[in-house]
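# step 3/5: fold
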Amino acid sequence: MAGLCVLHVDDDENIRALTALAFDLTGGGEVRSAASGAEALEVLAAGWRPDMILLDVMMPDMDGPGVLARLRELPAHRNTPVVFMTAQTQDHEIAGLMALGAAGVVIKPFDPMTLGQQVLALLGNQARD
């Protein structure tokens, strides 16, 4: 985990805090948080280049799939891995998110003790694909 830079986008302040704590507990990297899709796009447009993005699916104004579509328009982030975070657990919902180009999906509620390892495993699976 050391050295992994993560942008976490979620409109829920408690989820943002828990995710940052989860990465701190596993000793890994830098986590920056954004409270909305628009804020995330501003952070990325300003030049920050995370290794991956954790992206909530359900947010007001711009949902996760909308943020991903806009992200892919930014040349520096066309290939940045995105892992969706969602409470949607049906197979067709997860398959739909994967079809958008996600590296994986983390189901909420998640275990903060294993979130870092779960994300690394998803990124590792993407690297093998």
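# step 4/5: annotate
The first helix runs from residue 13 to 25.
# step 5/5: archive (pending)
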